[in-house]
Amino acid sequence: MPSILITGCSTGFGRVTTLHLLKRGWRVIATVRKVADREDLRAEASADGVAANLTVVITDITQADDVAGLGQVVAERASSLDALVNNAGTAFPAPLELLPIDEFRAQLEINVVAQLAVTQAMLPFLKTARGTIINVSSVAGRIASPMIGAYNASKFALEAMSDVLRLELIPFGIRVVVIEPGSSPTAIWKTSGDRQSASTGGAMAPYAKLIERLRVVAEQASQTGFPPQMFADLVERILNQAHPRPRYAIPAAIRRRLLLRKLVSDRMMDRLIRRALGW
Q1: pTM, rounded to two decimals
Q2: Cα separation, 128 vs 133, whole angstroms
Q3: 151 catalytic, yes or no?
Q4: Of these four, 66, 72, 81, 210, which has the most CB atoms within 10 Å of its CB?
Q5: pLDDT single digits (tens) 128-171
């Protein structure tokens, strides 16, 4: 039975992928942040008849002790690890002029530093299995936009880190793949919108139009976008390939947007983004 570790499984991509792979015969170790999320995920897996192959670990991936404990859990459950999906992440939206530096550091800590910490802890198990690492980036890792500069910075960094890991780990038979999703009805943008909703006065006032636009986009993303099951299906497809591509963008509209970014100049892209945001 192949084994996989997936981080960030309380909601969204991580949760759907966990349940999907369990049904496909994988042993899944899933991380969540809260006891309630652990019990909820276990209950859903039980309802599907696949709970026997699920291990849910309460983990804060920014804490070294938690990451070390996660490594111990993996060692107890499996002598090797066939795959790692670095899915956990969050967003701290604000104009960079006014973003508290502590929040900028937290953004990089969660979306970049912690991803490497988990990867380092899992590499001994992945090397044994000659496994696959899937890092969940975003279209925001290729195209920068106002108000999400910290998130952009973290995802651009994750893309670069993934490229380096792919090159460094080739001799060990480990594949490193990046998934670049567009908007989907997951919790991340609702959470980020909630963080920003109370910050419209004072120094933020000149950015009120952008803040309102972000609120609208976050609300739309929480209700529309491509279904998370499409992400889970893509993960399974990657895991079943001997030679997956380095990058996968979903859905098709995102692939077209990334192609457009390659074809137009920076100034033209600036105009297109400003027009879309009314800025």
Answers
A1: 0.92
A2: 13
A3: yes
A4: 81
A5: 999 999 999 999 999 999 999 999 999 999 999 999 999 999 99
